[in-house]
Amino acid sequence: MAATTTTSTTNAMAFLRSTIRAIAIPGLWFLLIINTVSLIQWTCVQFLMLNCHKSGLMGLVHNLLSLGSPVCITVNQIQVALAIHYVQLWTVVGTICTGWFINRLSLSK
């Protein structure tokens, strides 16, 4: 009876170690990608606030001159695409994690 308990404990620990290893590397890559996308998108918004949009009545006049600016339009399109990409990344990762956990549960039976 003691040998069976030790074997099942060893198997459980091996399963736990393999699960942690399987999650760690992709998880770190995901965090790196998410943080990079967020940083670039934040930088784009800061650029837009400083160079393309002014507050107050002078902002209204500045807007007339910068509304069709190719630089402002390009940076705005980049930041919108990054925001969409960010949401898509979270959706994909949620789907992958759900499938992975279901697969792991079915394999452990």
Protein topology:
Layout: H1 2-51, H2 56-66, H3 70-107
Structural account:
- The protein has one domain (26-107).
- The chain is rod-shaped, with a radius of gyration of 24 Å.
- The two termini are 21 Å apart.
- The chain is built from three helices and no strands.
- The protein is 91% helix and 0% strand.
- With 109 residues, it is mostly helical.
- The model has no long low-confidence stretch (mean pLDDT 85).
Number of domains: 1
Termini Cα gap: 21 Å
Radius of gyration: 24 Å
Q: Assign an overall shape.
A: rod-shaped
Structural class: mainly alpha
Produce a short descriptive summary.
The protein is an all-alpha fold. The protein has helices at 2-51, 56-66, 70-107.
Key words describing this protein structure:
109 residues, mainly alpha, 91% helix
